[in-house]
From TrEMBL, chain A:
Family per record: Belongs to the SKP1 family.
Any one Gene Ontology BP term: ubiquitin-dependent protein catabolic process
Keywords for this protein: Ubl conjugation pathway
SKP1 component POZ domain segment(s): 14-69
Pfam families from the UniProt entry: Skp1 (PF01466), Skp1_POZ (PF03931)
Domain of life of the native organism: Eukaryota
Protein name: Skp1-related protein
Domain SKP1 component dimerisation: 113-159
Annotated source species: Caenorhabditis remanei
InterPro entries tied to this protein: SKP1, SKP1-like, SKP1-like_dim_sf, SKP1/BTB/POZ_sf, Skp1_comp_dimer, Skp1_comp_POZ
Automatic annotation (TrEMBL), chain B:
Species per Swiss-Prot/TrEMBL record: Caenorhabditis remanei (Caenorhabditis vulgaris)
Name under which the protein is recorded: F-box domain-containing protein
Database matches in InterPro entries: F-box_dom (IPR001810), F-box_Sdz-33 (IPR012885), Zygotic_Embryogenesis-Asso (IPR053222)
Signal peptide boundaries: none
Superkingdom of source: Eukaryota
Short name of any one Pfam family annotated for the protein: F-box
Residue stretches making up the F-box domain: 4-55
Coiled-coil annotated residue ranges, if any: none
Length: 203, 323
């Protein structure tokens, strides 16, 4: 059920990229500024489509929102050392892929508290590092890797160009073939009409 | 193994959010990673309020923000303190938050380091203040002059030799602030050439005469060597008659060992006591401490307040002119 009502008991249906739907409480959803801007006042008929994100990611994001429903209003970043045991577990049990997906979703949904904690967590990884160490942490490609990547991209571009050229050729041929039946049809119709006219005039 | 994170797979807004969680010293190190990181840090619009460069046997570059600051130390790595320090060569920097000296991917010389800081922290060159200390003789002055362009404030401390002080003063022109801990000139006329310049502020820590005081053309002046109350009284009389037309704020002290009398200090000068309430307001506004305040007026109707504070055998005086 979806409703514009603001009571915390109200549940909203969320649709993920897989097309699956699941319930999220209104109180949890209201932590998303994107939701507030798009649906809070106008309501939503049917599931709210957050279809750029998979179910696991959205569930993880809203798990955080459900948990922090009763926390005070967000008033700026909290130091990681001040995070609760629950918060720490929440972050620690995510692998890197899930963590990136959660940041992306949280960023899109504009959930300030979650985005801020995630980003502070990344910032902490860079603490006490020199430039070379930072390059490793943020997995920035080296000059050799960049060169290799560029070669791969050039090959891909060349391949794509070939495919495009072939497609253009095919399209050209198809165009000629497609025109043929129409001409034939016109000719057939004309012949029929001529025959009809001739038979009529013979009467 | 250290945790890694592919930062650039995040949307730009999230990357900016990560950077906003970093202190300015870490942002600085991050900005050295690549052109992209440099541009990202620059786009944050973080502004340094001043950049201070202390030159001695090494260079200490201090970057200050509203509520924080950090420094980089550049050392030539030689055990011989007299070995020449070439600022044009690539050099590593040390900073408190890192245990080892570091360099960006492309080696920087001191000028590159400085320009990088000025760029990413949106500094205009006129925020630069340079202080020369003992040991700064090992730097080749021409290279330093070319590296440190548009220096705003210059200070030369007591430990710098007279010859070197003169070289420094010859090399850095168009200053707004000058601080000399010692007069490096034998001929007093030479130092007076600096008193007559229209700096924003001049600070002089050596002996000075009434003539020196009357030549001061800066808006602010700070003299640290005590003078006699008679000398100050004579200065006031000249000011009332129109001397030092640009002077707004002067700090000086009077040797109090012979006990200062207000009668001698203000002898022959028309003055009125500033009311208690007004004194408090002035102290608050100008962030000063004072136990006595009088107002004087010069012939062109300009008023000035003389605030005094007795402390440890010295009478400290602050003179504020209101134009």
């Amino acid at each position: 059920m979806t409703s514009p009502a603001s009571s915390s008991e109200v549940k909203y249906l969320i649709e993920s990229s897989e097309g699956n739907t699941f319930d999220v409480s209104g109180a949890a959803l209201r932590q998303s500024n994107t939701f507030n801007a798009m649906f809070l006042n106008i309501g939503a008929d049917g599931p709210i489509p957050f279809t750029d994100y998979n179910e696991a990611t959205l569930k993880k994001v809203f798990e955080y929102c459900e948990h922090s429903v009763n926390e005070e209003n967000y008033s700026g970043p909290k130091h990681q050392d001040d995070l609760s045991k629950w918060d720490l577990n929440f972050f620690n049990e995510m692998d890197q892929k899930m963590f990136i997906d959660v940041i992306n979703a949280s960023n899109f949904l504009d959930i300030e508290r979650l985005t801020s904690y995630c980003c502070e967590r990344i910032a902490r990884m860079l603490r006490g590092k020199n430039t070379q160490e930072m390059i490793k942490v943020i997995t920035l490609p080296t000059a050799e890797e960049l060169e290799a990547k560029q070669k791969v991209e050039e090959k891909k571009a060349a391949a794509a160009k070939k495919v495009a050229e072939k497609a253009a050729e095919t399209a050209e041929k198809t165009e000629t073939l497609e025109e043929l039946p129409v001409q034939q049809l016109v000719q057939t119709t004309r012949n029929k009409l001529t025959r009809k006219y001739l038979s009529f005039s013979n009467e | 193994m250290e945790p890694t994170f592919p930062l650039f797979r995040l949307p730009e807004k999230a990357i900016v959010h990560v950077l906003q969680n970093m202190n300015s010293d870490r942002l600085f190190i991050f900005s050295l990673v690549s052109t992209k990181t440099k541009n990202l840090v620059t786009s944050l619009g973080l502004r340094a309020v001043s950049v201070y460069i202390g030159i001695s046997f090494e260079i200490c570059l201090n970057v200050n923000f509203d509520t924080s600051g950090w420094n980089l130390i550049f050392s030539n790595g030689s055990n011989d303190q007299n070995a020449e320090f070439d600022v044009t060569r690539p050099i590593s920097a040390s900073t408190f938050s890192l245990h080892q000296p570091f360099q960006p991917s492309t080696p920087f010389n001191f000028s590159d380091w400085l320009n990088h800081i000025l760029t990413i922290f949106c500094c205009t060159n006129n925020l630069l203040a340079v202080k020369f200390r003992a040991g700064s003789e090992q730097f080749e002055m021409e290279s330093l002059k070319n590296t440190l362009k548009n220096v705003n404030g210059l200070a030369i401390t007591e430990g710098v030799t007279d010859i070197h002080s003169k070289q420094i003063l010859n090399s850095f022109k168009d200053l707004k602030k000058l601080a000399l801990e010692r007069n490096p000139f034998e001929d007093n006329c030479e130092v007076q050439k600096f008193f007559i310049q229209n700096f924003e502020k001049i600070e002089f820590c050596d002996v000075y005469s009434l003539d020196d005081m009357l030549l001061v053309n800066s808006e602010k002046v700070r003299f640290t060597k005590p003078i006699s109350q008679k000398q100050f009284n004579q200065f006031l009389k000249h000011w009332i008659r129109g001397s030092n037309p640009r002077l707004q704020d002067m700090f000086l002290s009077i040797d109090n060992t012979t006990s200062v009398s207000r009668e001698v200090l203000l002898k022959g000068i028309d003055c009125v006591d500033v009311a208690e309430e007004e004194q408090q307001e002035i102290c608050q506004e100008l962030s000063i401490v004072s136990d006595y305040m009088v107002e004087i007026r010069r012939n062109d109707e300009t008023t000035a307040v003389i605030a005094t504070k007795d402390f440890e055998n010295n009478l400290y005086i602050r003179f504020f002119a209101y134009y």
